[in-house]
């Protein structure tokens, strides 16, 4: 009985030692599991934070993309408006240039016509004067009146000739100004 009792006590002690060992292993595993849980919790919080930041970054990017697209569209519309205005202005200036060119041609024709008329008038008056001097030496008073009238008419013709010449110079200056303005417009990159 004593031997059996001792043998049972030995088994109990062995069992207690084994239980103590398993308990320590369980506590170590519980501590490790706690560490794993805490690490997993930190990772989940970090992942959640990253997702939030990613979502915010994505929203910010979409807002930026929309604003950039709107700015680009506005700039494109402004450029089209500026091009349309410049194109209209170019057409107006071209029409004005054509009108001035036509006026210049008309004034040149008028100038040449007046010049020819003036020359013919001077020749006619000279011939009449010579004829009157030869035929009517006795009518000096009447001849002087005729010469005075002819001189007045010649002055008027010279004055008209001078006015037409001034108009011609003014038209040429205006045409040169339009030509320079046209060249400046053609050099602008938007009109190319």
Automatic annotation (TrEMBL):
Keyword terms: Coiled coil
Gene expressing this chain: Golim4_0
GO cellular component term of the entry, any: Golgi membrane
Identification of the protein by name: GOLI4 protein
Family matches, as PANTHER family: GOLGI INTEGRAL MEMBRANE PROTEIN 4 (PTHR22909), GOLGI INTEGRAL MEMBRANE PROTEIN 4-LIKE (PTHR22909:SF23)
Coiled coil: 5-60, 90-142
Organism the protein comes from: Oriolus oriolus (Eurasian golden oriole)
